[in-house]
ABC transporter substrate-binding protein (Streptomyces nanshensis), 473 residues
Amino acid sequence: MGSTNVNRRDVIKQAAAAGLIAVPAVGALTSCASGSGEDNKVEKGKKTKDNPLGVNKGAALEVYIFDGGFGTKYAKDAQAVYEKNFPKAKTKLKSTQKIQSVLQPRFNGGTPPDLIDNSGAEQMDMGVLVGKKQLTDLTPLLDAPSIDDPSKKVRDTLRPGVVEMGQFDGKPVWILYYAYTVYGVWYSQKALDKLDVEYPENWDDMLSVCAKAKKKGMAGWTYAGKFPYYLPFSLYPFMAKIGGREVLDKIDNLEPGAWKQPAVKAALEAYYELYKKGYVLDGTPGLDHIESQTAWNEGKALFIPNGSWVENEAKKTTPKDFEMRVAAPSSLDSGDKMPFGTMWASGGEPFIVPAKAKNPTGGMEQLRIMLGEQSSKNFTKQVSSLTSLDGGTDGLTLPPGLDSALKALDKAGTNIVNPRIQDWYVALQKEKIGVACLGEMMAGRMTPAEAMKKAQKFTDEAREDDSITHYKH
């Protein structure tokens, strides 16, 4: 990182001195009542060594799974274990890509399922659900003995940060994030080798690699243009790397001026440079996540911001010799506050047990089964992703992308960031900042300065909105 990098920062500072497809109305959940249905919960069973949560062995269980990048087979396999343990229970597993459209009416009516994988573009707003007291506290699950080692509580078998992610204000844990997602810049090692380049560890090198790719008729970047809230998967840790963790904390806390921080300006200017220099694949703003991943698999672009579910989601179009890899965002320059390797990794696939569920204990027991080594390894083998169970990969032959993700985690060490805006304020993050600001900027319809101004406006509106439950670090 030579003086050119320092000059780049100086230029950005001088510049600073001078101057989704819409997600279906997530906000509609704010009007949800706690449900008009009467309390029709099943009676709890007797707590025993083999049934520590006291599941009613004959009670029905209904589970709803988001049918996305991870599919549903892993959940069906875990359901089979539940049925084996409770043969008298009638279980039902359903799936959809439209979680909110399908399940919001059931929340309104007080008849939600017992366990929900609340994920995808139509994810219900976590902050709203928590604020409206529509979820069950999962502390009993976390304090129950684990499936594999009864001497350990479930909470003691989870990866760092998973329990805290499910907390919004105080000790209750409202969400159990089942997958453990590594976010970053994904690429093909074969494609880099073909260009005779290494993954760029600073921004000048990133631009040089993109320029070299362009000469060969290949774009530097693509992304889910229709769902541009994928951009933060690499952009947010880039901001933190430049200015420190507090940059993201201020954004999460909805602070005045959060989007006017120098590190935010620097990061947006850098990404905008990709667009200005023609390093983004033509037509990207019109591509959805599958189309952008397919274009990347086909060698039309080198880099794509994504999460570790991509290896499974894109496997149908990924060449066998692709050598999928993930890396942390490049450094901006030698003045960055955090080292190269800093990345975003956190729980994914948020599972919730509704407060009005008929069989909430059964829902928690299904999660306890899923957090056992058998189900965890099954998930990893099937979908090329880690679970929140700490470990659970011993003896497994990992696919290249997941193996790369584990190595990236090891390199990051303690330099892991976890922006909470994604689960505290879903509508703000996806519809407003993602689509209306970052998406517009990367499509060339808005400058970084305009994007920052608009993002701050949305942030200020959210902070002043008394109908929104607010959270802070």
The chain has two domains: 61-173+353-371, 182-344+416-464. Residues 252 and 421 are 5 Å apart (CA to CA). The domain at 182-344+416-464 is CATH 3.40.190.10 (D-Maltodextrin-Binding Protein; domain 2). Residues 1-38 have pLDDT under 50 and may be disordered.
